[in-house]
Amino acid sequence: xxxxxxxxxxxxxxxxxxxxxxxxxxxxxxxxxxxxxxxxxxxxxxxxxxxxxxxxxxxxxxxxxxxxxxxxxxxxxxxxxxxxxxxxxxxxxxxxxxxxxxxxxxxxxxxxxxxxxxxxxxxxxxxxxxxxxxxxxxxxxxxxxxxxxxxxxxxxxxxxxxxxxxxxxxxxxxxxxxxxxxxxxxxxxxxxxxxxxxxxxxxxxxxxxxxxxxxxxxxxxxxx
Amino acid sequence: xxxxxxxxxxxxxxxxxxxxxxxxxxxxxxxxxxxxxxxxxxxxxxxxxxxxxxxxxxxxxxxxxxxxxxxxxxxxxxxxxxxxxxxxxxxxxxxxxxxxxxxxxxxxxxxxxxxxxxxxxxxxxxxxxxxxxxxxxxxxxxxxxxxxxxxxxxxxxxxxxxxxxxxxxx
Lengths: 224, 170
What we know:
Chain B: Belongs to the Rieske iron-sulfur protein family. The complex is a heterodimer. Chain A is mainly alpha-helical. Chain A has one domain (23-218): Cytochrome Bc1 Complex, Chain C (Up-down Bundle), CATH 1.20.810.10. Chain A has 9 helices and no strands. Chain A has helices at 2-13, 16-23, 44-62, 73-82, 87-114, 123-145, 150-164, 170-178, 186-218. In chain A, helix 6 (123-145) crosses helix 7 (150-164). Chain B is α+β, with helices and mostly antiparallel strands. Helix content of chain B is 19%, strand content 34%. Chain B has 2 helices and 9 strands; from the N terminus they run H-H-E-E-E-E-E-E-E-E-E. Chain B has helices spanning 10-37, 39-42, and strands at residues 51-56, 65-75, 78-90, 96-99, 111-112, 122-124, 129-131, 149-155, 158-165. In chain B, strand 6 and strand 7 form a beta hairpin. Classes of the chains: A mainly alpha, B alpha+beta. The A-B interface holds A 70, 157-158, 161-162, 172, 175-176, 178-181, 183, 185-187 and B 37-38, 40-41, 43, 45, 73, 75-78, 106-107.
């Protein structure tokens, strides 16, 4: 039945070459942990992406309950945490995943750095990777405020003070992030929410696409 | 047909005009969203009135004392009462000083003689930031600027405080 559906579509739009192009490629022996166990270090990039997918999925479901309003944000999180079946698990995935993704990302970066895999011709992909790192840190920073509890509030307060230290544009940058020159409040929460669920994920998708297209185009770096 | 050499080919002309029109449309689409996003930066800072902190000037000593009061705060669409606090004392010239308790390092709250190890200084417990009694940061500790100073005024023998500003501006 599935085969028939596939054939019916393929007959008309010829999709086989498209997915072959994406999915059919050789994994060199030196990056395959089945050949050399030490090749597990090549897994960290993929693991980072895997956790990112978990973050996206769990985050999508969290927004079914979360409201970015200072009166209700904490209450909505509390409700989803205590009253909603499996809510604790989904928020747990998002909460712990946020830390795990940074760890994986750092391990991936260390592997690329110490193997010198960033060298010509892969400098561009290193730069895209650094931008991805910043986007992930931004996601962590903006997401931290959303539960609107004391820890979130004061962490953001400190984070904004740090942004304010940027030379020349510090004050404007802080206001742009917080939505007010001095208050961390209603406008800060909506802004952080928008940045967390729309702006940064959009940047993340674009950069991830560039990261993956480059790695497929240039191939994985050779053995040490 | 003219004999002159064609300066702009049909293809070039179409490329330029379509890019131009497309650019205008994209710009037109983005103007309002971007202006909306940066609106807080362009807002004139609203100058709040000075508030009565319920402290008679006669009660102010040379020992910095923590003063708490409430102001009505407007945060976009959300209005609320928030508490503010200051360290108030009379300096050696008998002038009233009112320092913001917000540490200039990373925004923690400082206290007068907050540490037994550093008497006669403001102390921030987060990273051992210290300030002398005149609000100046102790060199070698994390803060890089003196404590902010409140706008202050005396009306009918009562102390009124406004906004905290960096020392030298207030």
